[in-house]
Design a protein that fits this description.
AraC-bd, DNA-binding, single chain, four-stranded antiparallel sheet, Jelly Rolls, AraC-type arabinose-binding/dimerisation domain-containing protein, HTH-like, 3 helices, seven-stranded antiparallel sheet
Length: about 180
Amino acid sequence: MTISEGFASERLCVVPRPEVALALTRPVTRRLVVTDAGMFPEARGHGRARGHGAREAIVMVCARGAGWVQVEGRRYGVGAGEAVVLPPGVPHRYGASPAAPWTLWWCHLRGADLAELLEATGASVERPVIALHRPERVIGLIDEVVTALEGARRPHGSWRRPGRRGACSHRWPPTA
């Protein structure tokens, strides 16, 4: 079972696509752009199926609990301290464990240096789950990205223009 309304205390940011397109034309930002990022705590019922993959690469870090990812018909378990790395355009499915749903930090990435980044992780379509040596550092980096994107949604931020709806959401206070 998957849910459609989000999770208590979730953090979710989506950069408006015209802003992503603009960033991909600029000298520095065209190298690597975060298009979406967030955190889903104890994400019971979380799951996605993308029959054609995503336009962006997806990086998901399991901070607690467990889940699974399926790529090319093969299912892989995902536990705390592991990351899922999915290249763009790769069909996949993933979901939280019903018994111990994951707390998941994640981001979607595009850019000219994306292939090099994916290669450096050691992940591949045949090996989409990797163990992280220092998962707290990766989680901290994604947290910084999410925090920066949350700040950018304010009128004084770098990509938020007056009158544009915020692209980040929170479920706070937590709902039961």
